[in-house]
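Quick question, first post here. What does this chain look like in 3D?
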Amino acid sequence: EFGSDSTYELGASLTGGSDAAGYALDVSRYATDGELSLNNDSNRSSFRGRVDLRPNARWDVRLSSAFTDSAFDFPTDFLAGMRGGFAPIDPSQGRKTREWVNGVDVDWAASDRVQHHFGLGHAQVRDDDFDPFDRVPSDSAESKTRTHEARLRADYRMLLDTEVRKEIGARFTF
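> Answer (accepted):
Ran it through. Tokens below.
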């Protein structure tokens, strides 16, 4: 799909499988030049995938992963204020973000009345904010900021199917 401001969005997905295994893949790309004529580009590329395995009636295994790479440029210095009628003059400030998420989930039915769930997950996000020194009157210095966040998830649940359904479990996030 193409639109105003040189905007486009493309994507493709593929799914399939059987009772024993399945998969899903998705890729996409979005980009635009933005509404402003100076430093207002934005783009995002993403990939997502999942594999489901069911080797027998008692086991289910799910593997998933997602990756996103995005960037957004934004002018910040407006003469006489943002709504002052003047064009933006900071040509190079922006943010780049990378996100990576992975997970494994396993379900095991030990019997008709006892089920176990094990899960592991990892998420990582990195943001880079940047504003290099530009030779414009309102810019006085270069600035860079990097934020990095990582999380690890581990959980276990046991489901007891008795007269009253009970769930026992623990979840840890680091």
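DSSP finds no helices and eight strands in the chain.
The two ends are 40 Å apart (CA to CA).
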